[in-house]
């Protein structure tokens, strides 16, 4: 991992188009395409704005309904309170996964589905003694199985995504980093997440480089679609990146670190959950 201080005008939290245009190298006056749009042409409004509005309404409706339901059932039937919260995760996971077409996000929907279904089955069994009874041990085992599935997803999805991008972006080109946008990942209200190691505080910032490269006599200026603190290029550094020959504005820069961390976390989920299941089985 590399860390840089965002203290120059070519590294900012928001992409400044006027600054970006000023650093584009185009001595021969060739056509410039910035993030897939020819320079000077305004972006068209999204055609699926109605669909996006409906999805936003659904998310807001489910969130408010889920919170109200959780508050009500927390006093009447606590297990159903968990179902209400699970329904929120289920809808958010499904909507986000469909819109982003991201496999790992489906794991959120899977967690929400289990959180929704298990308490309902548990409550139904308590009110109907002759029906299927969901015991505490069974719930724990189902949760552990879910953790194994989540772990497998964390291990597999990043590599599947990598293989797809490598296949799609089949050609390589030398590109120059001319700009970097950044933001901070924080779990609190501070603008910067800080880790104290040996009495020293370190700010952790993630970056998205902007690359300039030329394909077929056209200058492309493209921002990476992910933020990372792995293998961050310096301004002016030239790297080899991959691009889609049918859509040169779609680029991919393979970075092993972005796949290593979820793989390790997923492996921990699988190993620890499997060991717990094995211990529970032997103690029964």
Automatic annotation (TrEMBL):
Organism: Ruminococcus albus 8
UniProt entry tagged with the keyword Transmembrane: yes
Keyword Transmembrane carried by entry: yes
Protein name, UniProt field: Uncharacterized protein
Source taxon at top rank: Bacteria
Transmembrane segments: 54-73, 80-99, 105-125, 137-157, 260-280
Upper classification of the organism: Bacteria, Bacillati, Bacillota, Clostridia, Eubacteriales
UniProt entry keywords in alphabetical sequence: Membrane, Transmembrane, Transmembrane helix
């Amino acid at each position: 991992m590399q860390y840089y201080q965002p203290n120059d005008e070519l590294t900012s939290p928001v992409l400044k188009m006027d600054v970006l245009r000023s650093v584009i190298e185009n001595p021969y006056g060739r056509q410039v395409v910035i993030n897939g749009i020819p320079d000077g042409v305004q972006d068209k409004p999204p055609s699926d704005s109605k669909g996006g509005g409906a999805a936003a309404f659904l998310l807001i409706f489910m969130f408010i309904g889920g919170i109200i339901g959780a508050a009500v059932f927390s006093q009447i039937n606590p297990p159903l309170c968990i179902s209400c919260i699970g329904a929120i995760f289920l809808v958010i996971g499904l909507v986000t996964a469909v819109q982003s077409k991201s496999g790992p996000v489906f794991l959120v929907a899977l967690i929400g589905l289990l959180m929704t279904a298990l308490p309902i089955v548990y409550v139904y069994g308590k009110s109907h003694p002759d029906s299927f009874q969901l015991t505490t041990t069974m719930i724990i085992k189902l949760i552990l199985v879910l953790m194994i599935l989540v772990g497998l997803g964390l291990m597999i999805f990043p590599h599947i995504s990598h293989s797809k991008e490598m296949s799609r972006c089949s050609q390589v080109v030398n590109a120059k980093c001319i700009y970097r946008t950044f933001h901070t990942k924080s779990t609190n209200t501070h603008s910067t997440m800080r880790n104290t190691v040996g009495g020293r505080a370190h700010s952790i910032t993630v970056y998205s480089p902007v690359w300039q490269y030329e394909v077929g006599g056209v200058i492309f200026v493209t921002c990476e679609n992910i933020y990372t603190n792995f293998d961050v290029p310096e301004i002016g550094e030239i790297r080899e990146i991959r691009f889609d020959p049918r859509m040169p504005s779609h680029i991919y820069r393979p970075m092993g670190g972005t796949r290593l961390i979820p793989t390790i976390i997923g492996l921990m989920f699988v190993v620890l959950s499997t060991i717990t299941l094995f211990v529970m089985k032997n103690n029964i």
